[in-house]
Amino acid sequence: MERNITLTALFAALIAVLGLIPKLTLMSGIPITAQSLGIMLCGTVLGARRGALAVLLFLLLVALGLPLLAGGRGGLGVFAGPTVGFLVGWVVGAYVIGLLTSGLTSLPVGVAAGIAAVIGGIVVLYIPGIIGMMIMLDMSVQKAFLSILPFIPGDLLKAVLAGAITATLARARPGVVASRPAG
């Protein structure tokens, strides 16, 4: 129990630290940040349930006003902006990434984590992200979809990094990757 709480808090802190990397905001109002790498790692390392809990803890701290999002943003106002769909999608994405990483046992852990990060951290995450943009920015589906295209190359790179980091952790500390059975 204590280990679960510690890991959940540690990964919430990791998401916050990745927000210190300067953001680049596109014309859509959606920033490119390193924080989505943290979301991917929550799922690949902690697994579905703990990964989603780490993201929820992070979002609770943001809602309480801590400036933990890229660019020092925080407070309830961020949940009324164009990024709201992505913030909600982070929880779902981390959960799906954890499920897929644990389910793809026939693949090496790094490959499974990379595939899971692409599916959960890009495909699944973008669905609520696009919906949020459509609602908050009064965009059509086509315009919202086109506005997320510039994010895909960077997110693919983050998915590869998540797979590599997860594989390295699994080799260095067998059993530390909770999304996969030890051995």
TrEMBL record:
Record's bilayer topology term: Multi-pass membrane protein
One term of GO molecular function: biotin transmembrane transporter activity
UniProt subcellular location: Cell membrane
Coiled-coil segments: none
InterPro entries the UniProt entry points to: BioY
Superkingdom assignment: Bacteria
Keyword annotations from UniProtKB, A to Z: Cell membrane, Membrane, Transmembrane, Transmembrane helix, Transport
GO cellular component, one term: plasma membrane
Spans through the membrane: 53-70, 76-97, 109-136, 148-170
Keyword Nucleotide-binding annotated: no
Record-stated family: Belongs to the BioY family.
Name recorded for this polypeptide: Biotin transporter
Species whose genome carries this gene: Aliiruegeria lutimaris
